[in-house]
Design goal:
The chain has five helices and no strands. By secondary structure, the chain is mostly helical.
């Protein structure tokens, strides 16, 4: 597989592990429990959805799945914004995770735009396994 793809798979997995570790440090309040559960789900879904993107069988499927990864990264950023801007938690970890969620979102947006433009132009689909056999 492509080294950039493997690096992004590792990066999204690290994000998931970092989110899990961070959620375990949240105060034991109802609001932190609720937000922590949402953040745990979205933060771990970023990597899971990116891995699914890597297995896409068509450009259309790639676009759909990369946009799912984007939605999860953006949702993670939202929960982290609530925690930081609402002064529910303090410290660098939440801000660092927020920065990573934003960077991952930008990467996924760029990939989605590139793939969508290629689809509109009618470029050959690199994900189409039937094409590669011939």
């Amino acid at each position: 597989m492509n080294p950039e793809t493997e690096a992004l798979k590792a990066r999204t997995k690290k994000f998931a592990l970092d989110v899990l570790a961070f959620v375990r440090t949240l105060p034991a309040t109802d609001e932190c429990h609720d937000i922590g559960n949402q953040l745990r789900r979205s933060g771990t879904s970023v990597g899971a959805n990116y891995r699914a993107t890597c297995r896409a069988r068509s450009r259309a499927e790639f676009i759909s799945k990369i946009n799912c990864a984007l939605e999860e990264a953006d949702e993670s950023a939202f929960w982290l914004e609530l925690l930081t801007e609402g002064a529910i938690t303090s410290g660098r970890t939440a801000w660092d995770l927020l920065g990573e969620a934003d960077e991952l979102s930008r990467i996924f947006v760029a990939s989605s735009i590139t793939a969508t433009e290629a689809e509109r132009r009618g470029d050959p689909d690199p994900h189409d396994r039937r094409r590669r056999r011939s």
